[in-house]
Amino acid sequence: MNGNLSVILSGANAFSDFAREWQTRMGETFALASFDRSTVAGFAVRSRGFRVRDVLFNRFENAAVLRTAGQRVGTEDHVRLWIVHRGAWRFGEPGGIEHTTPAGRLLLQTGELSHFSAAPGTTGQVLVLPAAEIRRGRGRPVTGLADTAEVRLLTAHATLVSRMLDGLGPAGINATRDTLAELARAAAGGGLDDVEPLLSPALAQAARDLADRRLTDPALSAAALARKLNVSARTLQRAFANEGQSLSAYIRERRLDEARRALITPHRRMSITEIAARWQFADSGHFARAFRKRYDQTPTDYAATVTCESDVPGLRTRDRSVMERATRASTP
């Protein structure tokens, strides 16, 4: 069984709607826990996940407190990797042992839970696999940092899976599932085989995610991203080459796109020289040449044209046509 789940729910029927979607997409293997009355009554959650054969991944953000109803949760033959980005996740094991995973930490746990809860505003991810896939975490949960290269790769791969799952054939499903297990072992402290070809798409996506957050950073480079992802620059470049684009070309295109957006921001206060500097072009002349090559206009002409057309309700055709030409020009 394979399926995607993507919901944003709140209100009177939020929990029943969520439970129905979960059952349909995730099935009995990953049955939803029983929650207490206050959780059901105030249920408000953003959830995006998927199931690939015997593996489940879910990103979640809860606006209100989550708390199970005290019944046993999960099964003995599952291992769970919890990754908390904000808030805190708490759970108990049979026998009265309690654990708390705060923001910025991960926790690997095997077997049944007696209960779990999450504070309001908690965001995180959970990956559930057959216990045989990860031997660590048996007997005593394993904790670690959530901000590691291995966790970034796991998150990036999960992003790709959620986008592509519906179009994957049997071979793609099997490869996706095995890559999730490999990355889970790495995130749990088992190390990463950075020459494994199945990891190339996840590595490229993780690099894009990091680059997108650092486009104004003058130190942004393939080498800097490779260090952050704990792989060699050659390995990272090879991952991008497999997708038909260099990492430097990706950074250049993203910086041009952000500069273009800055040019047409209403009531813009930055000059073209300031925009060029912010997005790390050598000078305004270099920026103008790169911009014209991509968008077939100088920055000044582009900003003036879009500004004039935005004054006419519904008239943004030229802006769209410029983008379409740029897209066609950059497509192999």
TrEMBL record:
GO molecular-function term, one example from the UniProt record: sequence-specific DNA binding
Domain HTH araC/xylS-type: 205-305
Keywords: DNA-binding, Transcription, Transcription regulation
SMART domains: HTH_ARAC
Pfam family, one: HTH_18
Domain of life: Bacteria
UniProt-recorded name of the protein: AraC family transcriptional regulator
Native organism: Streptomyces dioscori
